[in-house]
Design brief:
This protein is of the alpha/beta class and about 240 residues long. The chain contains nine helices and ten strands.
């Protein structure tokens, strides 16, 4: 990390506002030792789905960051799928099959049945758009796909090995898995990512994975980067 900067990268939240609040409290306590430093929160995406409080998580993240922090929010594949649903993309209804039902419920929308007709899915979409505050929509549409700071590159899922960081495709940054996870290539920077669950941080020479399955394990993880140091904070 550049001198004078401390970064807290936070893994996949998936609707667990309780864990997000716990971890932010830990981070604020930890940051008390860095009063003279610039401090950034980098959220790696997947804020919605699966857990019970997606709406509240978005509301928290769309608001101002804790005092003394900057915040950068990356897009996850679940946010992209949610936007596809809202925008009536052909694959939009797929969102309901892998977590979207919980997000609908958090906005007070009765989830359609698995065998619902297109008209019923369309009605759920209409009700979601009606229930969603404008600043939530702006937050989702404004999410970026990647960020580089110092010797680290932050992205939700990973990158395509062998492709320069500045030429990575959105689909890979949000969805890639095995080709990235199994690669020993030097990516030019250490890639910090979520998307793929591991019971503890997955530390490799070319990447660090910090999706510890918070929605199911109660374990939400932050990677703390400062100078040449790396350490972790966790809710469990």
């Amino acid at each position: 990390m550049p001198r004078g900067l401390r970064v807290y990268a936070i893994g996949d939240i998936h609707g667990r506002l309780d864990l997000l609040d716990q971890l932010l409290n830990q981070i604020q306590h930890d940051a008390a030792s860095a009063r003279d430093q610039v401090k950034h929160l980098v959220f790696l995406g997947d804020y919605v789905d699966r857990g019970p409080n997606s709406r509240a998580v978005i509301d928290r993240l769309a608001g101002p960051p804790p005092a003394g922090f900057g915040a950068i929010h990356l897009m996850g594949n679940h946010e992209e799928a949610m936007l596809d649903f809202m925008n009536e993309a052909p694959n939009g209804p797929n969102w309901l099959r892998y977590g979207g039902l919980a997000t609908l419920a958090s906005y007070g929308v009765r989830p359609p049945a698995e065998d619902a007709q297109p008209e019923e899915v369309g009605e759920a979409r209409r009700l979601l758009l009606a229930a969603m505050p404008a600043h939530h929509r702006s937050f989702l549409k404004g999410l970026r796909t990647s960020l580089s700071i110092g010797d680290y590159h932050f992205v939700h899922a990973g990158i395509r090995p062998g492709m320069p960081l500045e030429r990575q495709e959105r689909q890979d940054m949000l969805w890639i898995r095995d080709e990235f996870l199994n690669s020993n290539a030097n990516h030019g920077k250490v890639v910090v990512h979520g998307h793929t669950i591991s019971m503890k941080p997955d530390i490799q020479p070319n990447r660090i994975g910090i999706d510890t399955g918070a929605y199911a394990t109660n374990r939400l993880t932050a990677l703390v980067l400062e100078g040449t140091d790396r350490r972790f904070l966790c809710t469990v």
